[in-house]
## 1
Amino acid sequence: MEIESLYNIFLESKGVTTDSRKCADGLMFFALKGERFNGNSFAAQALSQGCICSVVDDARFFDANDKRMVLVDNVLKTLQQLALYHRRALGLPVIGITGTNGKTTTKELVTSVMRRRFKLNATVGNLNNSIGVPLTVLATTPADEYAIVEMGASHPGDIRELVDIAEPDYGLITNVGKAHLLGFGSFEGVMATKGELYDFLRAHGGKAFVNRSNPYLMQMAQGLDRMEYASGVDGNAQGALVSGKVLECNPYLKFQWQSQNGPVHEVQTRLIGSYNIDNALAAASVGVFFGVPESDICQALEEYTPSNNRSQLTVTASNRLVVDAYNASRTSRAAARESFSVVQSASKMLILGDMRELGDASDAEHQKVVEALKQYGFENVWLVGAEFQKASAGAFRCFDSVDQVIEELSANPVKDRTVLLKGSNGIGLFKLDETL
C-alpha cells in the first residue's frame, strides 16, 4: 500500500497505537516487533478490539481476505514514513530538543511556557526514540499551532534519523556530556551525534536556541542562524536574547532573568539544583522569541512541578529526598553533587548508583566521582553497584544492589536527613522512596 493511501486511513482514524493492550475503537494498530516480542501476533486481536486497521510485516499473521490488514516490508519504517507525511501535511512549526542532560526537563519547561499563548502538542514523558518521535508527530493535529519534539540518542546517527522524521524548524541542544559512551565511542562522538540537529537546521534554513555559556555548543553552532541565551552573568548580556543568574538554591532554584529590552524578573521555581538555570533560561528564550508575555513566562516557570524522578524534592515522614534518579552521566552527576554541596541541612546523605553505558571509560569516570566526593568532604555516602565498588576501594560504604540498600534501611532506618538519590535509572534508586 502506498503511504498516501495509508495516510487516508489515518485521517479517518482516531490515532495510532503500537501497544496491543491499548487497542480501542477507531485506532490504527502498528505491529512492531523486537528481540523479545512480535506485535504481529496481536494483529487480529487488535481488529477484534475495534482497531480499524492493523499494519503488519510478518506474512504468517496477514489475512489477505481481511481488508483491514495492511502488509508492509517494515512496520517501524512505515510508521516513520507516515509520521513524516503527516508532518509535511500539517506544515506547522516544529521545535526539536535534544542534549545529554536536561532535555526532558527543558522540553517540559518549554511546553509550559509556550502553552501560555499557543495550542500545541509535545512529547509525552521521554518518548524520544525512533518509535516515540513518530508517535508524537502523529498525535499532532491541525488544531495545534506548534509541535515540540524531544529527541534522544545512544548511537551515532540516532538524531539524524529523528530529525528526518520530525523535520524541525527550530532546535535546542541543552548540553553535551559524557553519557552513552559505550554507544558513541567518545565525547567527540556525542558532540557529532547531538550536533546532527544543528546540521539539519543549517541545511534547511532553521534556527537554533544556543546557550552562549556553553563553549561546546557555541563551537557546534558556528555558521548557524541562532538566538543565544546566557547564564551566570549580571544584568543583560550584550547580544543575548535572554540572560540570567542563580540567586539561591536551597534546595529549590531561585533565579533572575531578563530579555534584551525587558525588566529584571525573579522566579522561584520548584526545581532542585542550580544546574536547572540553563534549562529555565532556554525555555524563557523560546517564549520571548515567540512572543509569550514575560509575566506568563515567569508564571509558567514558577508553576512547573517536576516528576519522573527528575530534579524533584520528596518529603517523607522521616527525611527530605532530593531525587534525580533517572539519568546519571558524569556531567549530570557533577552538577547534582555541586548543587547538593550548598544545600543547607544539619545532616546530609548521598546514595549514588553506577553510571551505565560508559564503555572503556567506566572505571576512570567512576574513580573521578569517588575522588570528587572526597574533595567535597562528604562523609555519609553510600555507593550502589559493581562499578562503584571497584572505584571506592573502601573509601565509602558500598552495596551490590538497591535491594541490599533497602534491607539495610529496613533494619536501620535513616531519619532527619536530606538525602540525594542519583543514579542511572536501571540501578533503581527510585525504589528507595518508600524505605526512606
## 2
Amino acid sequence: MKYTITGSNLQFANIELEQGEEFFSQAGAMKYMTGNMTMEAKAKGGVMKSIGRMFMGESLFLVKYTVNGGKGIVGIGGNAPGKILDINLNEGTWIAQKTAYLGGEAGVNLEVTFQKKLGAIFFGGEGFILQKISGSGMAFLESCGDLITVDLAPGQMYKVSTSHAVAWQESVKYDIAAAGGIKTALFGGEGLFVTTLTGPGKVIIQSMTIPELAGSLIPFIPTGK
C-alpha cells in the first residue's frame, strides 16, 4: 500500500492499492475511488469486535476496499475541518478517542478499551470508552483543527484541555488534575479539571474539538423570524 495525505484543513488520505491488497475504513469515510476499486461492508474481527465498535460510536461494519486489476485509489476523509493523522503500528500500540479511527490496512486491529481511573472517566473529557489500535501496518485517525505531536520523556507531564488529546501511545499514562484554584476553575475557561499525560511516549493534541466547533457556529445559524 502507498498513500499520500493532501489538503490543509479538510484533508484526504489517498490510498493506493495493488492487486491482492486490502484496506478498511469506517462507514461513510470514502470520498472518491477509481473505477476498478470495489467496496464491501464487513464485520471485521467477528461479532464481538463489531459490537465493540458500536460502543465506541463507530459503525457496526467496516468497509473493505480491494482493487480489481492493476492499481486503484480510494480517498477517505473526516467529517469536520481538521487533520488526518497517520500512525505506524509496527512501532507500537496507540490509544485514541472513541471516534478518532478513520481507516487502516488489513493488519490493523481496532478494539474497545476502558478508562481504569474514576477521575479520568468522569472529568477527563475523553470519556469512559476509548479505542485501542494495535496490530501491524498504517492506521489513519481524524481530528478537528490542527495537530501537534509531543514526544514525552519518561516522567514528563503535559496538561491538556478537555478532549484535546486525540491519541497517545500505550506507554503514556492518562489521568486528570485540577485546573488550578477556584478563581481559575470558574473564570479560566478550562473547567475544574484538565487531562494529564505522563511519558514516555508520543501524544497527539488537537487545536479544536467538534463540540467547540459547533458552539462557535451557533451564533451565526439563522433561526428564522
